[in-house]
């Protein structure tokens, strides 16, 4: 907890947050950071040193025209656990980052599409594009109504007991172009059991996502919100708020060779506002759909 406080102090500064945002686009030296942020060199150097002291960035000497100090960001996100240490159950953890194009089942109704690093995959607003072989390279997929389903390898050791299952993904609503006020009811299922529904407030654009490629127009969706679902012995939670009574024991994780996750928007939802799902090269977070499975032997 002491380290968490110091990290919070380090990033509770507009200059240092802006430095981290710039470094999200790639390595920079202090001169480059100073020019991009419109700050004096001395101010930039002091703030870079603070980030370096907290191990939030790495500074390396790189040969070039002379030797340069190049700064690189160490983390894409910071998670602070607020539970008291004596309430955290000891155990092991299995982590898997699923690319968003690796779904095994889907249903999509327009507006819909799949986007790769350099262009659309298939045709816009054509559900058949979701079956293109190039979908495995998807970095953004979207639909107004429907779902995508993924199967994670079940690496729970035989005889072990799952204590917590967690998923995180960057998502938002799907509006024409983008629209901040565009609610959508997005539902999560695990092993065909409905976990709960989150109402996304809108579809975010107008300001480029940290990882969104330059060719993708600013008037289109740019980034989403990073949502975290956690299923434990106490129920199911979204960003720490309980959303249902489904427990990890009800998922029968020791009975299947895979762990199924489905994200979608129901046709009869109150807010049928679609879904955007972001991969590593779109949006603000360099990840697909991350699964963490905690267990005890």
TrEMBL record:
Signal peptide interval: none
Cross-referenced Pfam families: HTH_5 (PF01022)
Domain of life: Bacteria
InterPro entries for this protein: ArsR-like_HTH, HTH_ArsR_DNA-bd_dom, WH-like_DNA-bd_sf, WH_DNA-bd_sf
Keywords: DNA-binding
SUPFAM superfamilies hit by this protein: Winged helix' DNA-binding domain
Protein name: ArsR family transcriptional regulator
């Amino acid at each position: 907890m002491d380290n968490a406080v110091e990290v919070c102090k380090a990033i509770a500064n507009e200059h240092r947050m802006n430095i981290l945002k710039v470094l999200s686009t790639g390595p920079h030296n202090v001169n480059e950071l100073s020019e991009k942020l419109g700050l004096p060199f001395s101010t930039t150097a002091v703030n870079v040193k603070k980030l370096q002291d907290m191990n939030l960035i790495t500074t390396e000497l790189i040969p070039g025209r002379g030797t340069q100090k190049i700064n690189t960001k160490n983390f894409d996100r910071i998670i602070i656990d607020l539970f008291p240490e004596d309430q955290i159950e000891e155990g092991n953890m299995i982590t898997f980052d699923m690319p968003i194009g690796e779904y095994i089942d889907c249903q999509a109704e327009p507006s819909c599409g799949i986007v790769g690093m350099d262009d659309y995959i298939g045709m816009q607003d054509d559900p058949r594009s979701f079956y293109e072989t190039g979908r495995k390279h998807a970095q953004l997929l979207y639909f107004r109504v429907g779902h995508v389903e993924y199967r994670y390898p079940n690496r729970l050791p035989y005889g072990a007991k799952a204590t917590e299952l967690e998923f995180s993904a960057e998502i938002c609503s799907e509006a024409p172009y983008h629209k901040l006020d565009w609610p959508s009811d997005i539902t999560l299922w695990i092993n065909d059991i409905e976990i709960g529904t989150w109402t996304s407030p809108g579809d975010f654009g107008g300001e480029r996502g940290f990882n969104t490629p330059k060719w993708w127009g600013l008037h289109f969706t740019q980034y989403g919100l990073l949502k975290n679902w956690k299923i434990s012995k106490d129920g199911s939670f979204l960003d720490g708020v309980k959303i249902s009574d489904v427990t990890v024991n009800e998922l029968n994780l020791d009975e299947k060779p895979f762990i199924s996750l489905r994200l979608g928007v129901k046709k009869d939802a109150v807010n049928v506002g679609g879904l955007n799902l972001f991969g590593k090269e779109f949006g603000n977070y360099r990840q697909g759909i991350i699964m963490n499975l905690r267990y005890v032997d």
